[in-house]
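We treat protein structure as text, and this decision shapes the records that our systems exchange. The tokens are whole numbers drawn from a learned vocabulary of local backbone shapes. One such record is reproduced below, unchanged from the form in which we store it:
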Amino acid sequence: MKKVIQKIRKTIIVILCFVLFFLLGVFIYHRIMLGVEKGLISEPIGEMIEVDGGKMCIYSEGSGEPTIVFMSGYGTPSPILDFKPLYSKLCDDYRIVVAEKFGYGFSDETDSPRDIDTMLEQTRKALDGAEIEGPYILCPHSASGIEAIYWAQKYPDEIKGITALDIAMPGYHEERGYAISLDKAMGFICNSGLIRLMPMEQLEWGIDADSLTEDEKSQYKALMYARRGSATMIHEAEWCKENMATISGNGVPDVPMLFFTSKQMASVQFPSDPERYMTLAQRYTDNKAEYIALDCGHYVHVEEPDKIASEIHRFIEGIENNR
């Protein structure tokens, strides 16, 4: 019996050593490749704007009115490239802007807190520094819905409307709960280099979108490997529950709103009752907005850009006609 226990112990030690050497090898390869890929992302696609001691990247295209401001979901490695499938269908008629928060895309990291007031004011300062004036149509995705709703609550004169891309909103965390451990686990996967072993098709981001050139796809991947596990992102996740509580304590914004909701996300988040997810927006707004269900994944702007662009055109025309 003693020999059996010793053999089992040795086997476990061998396996652990193998796993540790494997992880070390992946990490070393990851660090080497970050250096190789650095040249791909050394030149920002947008304009770098000084904000609170760091620089935020603001990308703009087109010159029409109104201005549509795209705000990325939590953890999106390259907001500028991720939104391209959608804004490329809108920039001929409107001025489109992508604001990359600290810790995202080409923007710097920051030690400033990730409370909703700080993040909103930094976005507003970046737009002001880039001489991009409102009022705006906000187009938030996922977690940035919190910032967009708060923006309309706090500065309603700056917002013409909100076109919400499967956003987080009051009621979501209360019904589903929230665990920061998942965000930290993803941070480890990225920073250790294990993300390089994951097939691209398993990632919802627009890395392989048809609207991206091959060079842009390479840039997106380089930004994903370099930025997805940033400390700034993790700090933002730690603030998420408190930020949601802030907007929940205020009233529903008095601006026109159009909500796009993912049926597939509903099945993932509320598998036993997807309708709870699908009706979050109606319940939050007391059924006083517009709602469109999409049979696609959470990154709706990547999977259904034509449908969404068409509905945004219609939504904006309605706002302009009612002025």
